[in-house]
Amino acid sequence: ISPAMIRNFSIIAHIDHGKSTLADRILEFTGAITEREKQEQFLDNMDLERERGITIKLQSVRLRYQAKDGQVYLLNLIDTPGHVDFSYEVSRSLQACEGALLVVDAAQGVEAQTLANFYLAWENELEILPVINKIDLPNAEPERVRKEIEDIIGWDASEAVLASAKAGIGMEDILEQIVKHIPPPSGKVEDPLRALIFDSLYDPYKGVIIYMRVVDGTLRKGMKIELMATGKVYEVTEIGVLTPHPVAVSELSVGEVGFVVANIKNVKDSRVGDTITDADRPAQEPLPGYRPITPMVFCGIYPVDSSQYEDLREALEKLELNDASLSYEPETSTALGFGFRCGFLGLLHMEIIQERIEREFQIPLITTAPSVIYHVYQTDGSKIEIENPTLMPAQQKIERVEEPYIKATMMAPNEYVGSIMEICQNKRGQYVDMEYMEGNRVNLIYRLPLAEIVYDFFDQLKSSTKGYASFDYELIGYQPSDLVKMDILLNGEVVDAFSFIVHRDRAYHRGKKLAAKLRKLIPRQMFEVPIQAVIGNKVVARETIRAMRKNVLAKCYGGDITRKRKLLEKQKEGKKRMKSVGSVEVPQEAFMAILQMD
Ligand code: GDP
Ligand code: MG
Fold first, then answer.
1. pLDDT for 358-389, tens place per residue?
2. Ligand 1: does its nearest atom lie under 6 Å from the Cβ of 477?
3. What is the Cα–Cα distance from 222 to 442, expressed in whole angstroms?
């Protein structure tokens, strides 16, 4: 296949604007899927994904399209995940494309992720083709949305296709634009092989299946390949493309997208963003932009029923096979027993894994509040890294504590600058830069402690900007902070699962609020239960859960708590999970109460 006949593109959109529906319709229009398959949204293949309306795993599909010019083109549609936790994977898959369809809902107009995704595509130098979708809706205002794309994003939308993915309107126009405006791949066939890995998944029969795009050279069956980040060498046993059904091929050359099987046992050996080269004739340099993925957020995960500990281990082993960014190791808590400390890319990733364990493996869980990794420099000159607040040494042994900082890039319409700055100040942010851009947009850059982002930063940002602000972050390193460990005592005993690390200036406030919250969340027991928040030996807050009176039934779980996060709402719906901590029955919500502190 000549690269001149190939077009590689992805679809980007704000959630619910119709990305998956459009992808399906394109598949159908080009004859890639049959009537029966239409029943299901083809590109979203996990139940959980469909329910949450997000795409976690990347996929690609090869399509054939006979254009109006009479030529048959090979189109590769590469799907991208839709959340900031996975922004690295999004950027890798965009890198595998030359163009992107920017789908905007004709009724909703431009929203936060429209901007954020546009920005990512633009950074990857893609040809961006706006598509105004859902024009069949009675409240569709395509012309207003066209103007919004030009005003807010600052992108020419004069040629934007007016489409309805649902009704199948505009599909041919979209495909014609892809063929006309998206440039063909430009790699060199005679160069040593360089292929970009944009996804990999574990298959119980075949081992790891890598999804990749050939940039230079040719990948052949039987070839010895080297994965450049790890230096490991494997023999290619199978190559294929998805149409969307897997079809074996003997080779893939410049610009082609497909999958490779090479007896790789672990997804951790085939990292997203890595370059595949020919082991016998290796490329001089890998493709740019590889970043090893490191977990940013940690929490303890414990089975409600301690006898399910081994089941939990098996569940994590299975999930890890498919998720290179999940990490875990055993830990014990005096309060919760045996469990695991798990590392995640971010909060959404954390919620997804928790939900999958509960749903796919039927293991009810207790999870502790998320934490980041702190660097503790001790007075004896040693340095330790702490991902579990419980392990923080006593204050007199600490010389200083450093915490991870991120560089946050936020883009929003001008009018929200004040609100964004306020949130960033509240989250201990340090102002870095601000830039006014085309289309009445402003780009704000802050340095922020990751620990503050982990809580409800993103929600706050969204609600105070009516959802318009985009948010992207990268880790920039560690900075010293005046941090202290706060312990919570129930009935005079430290409950390790409640310990958290907090900035000294906020410690008093958080301690008081948490104690008050716990008083409401923990049901009355047969006896009085004091709750104390302490730093070292100093009690900063005290509350008392009064003993149950005989005539009062135990239905006194706090009903008036406004839960900020969806997760917590979900847990409320489910049956109450209680864990006996010493002699006190503690519900799951209590362990997450720290998330709702501001
Ligand atoms: P995604 O989150 O961007 O992948 O969005 P989906 O493709 O899942 O679509 C979100 C919702 O919008 C679904 O209920 C779709 O049926 C609906 N939808 C998608 N395209 C259209 C369209 O062109 N017209 C109408 N009326 N609804 C649409
Ligand atoms: Mg979708």
1. 998 999 998 888 889 999 999 999 999 998 89
2. no
3. 52
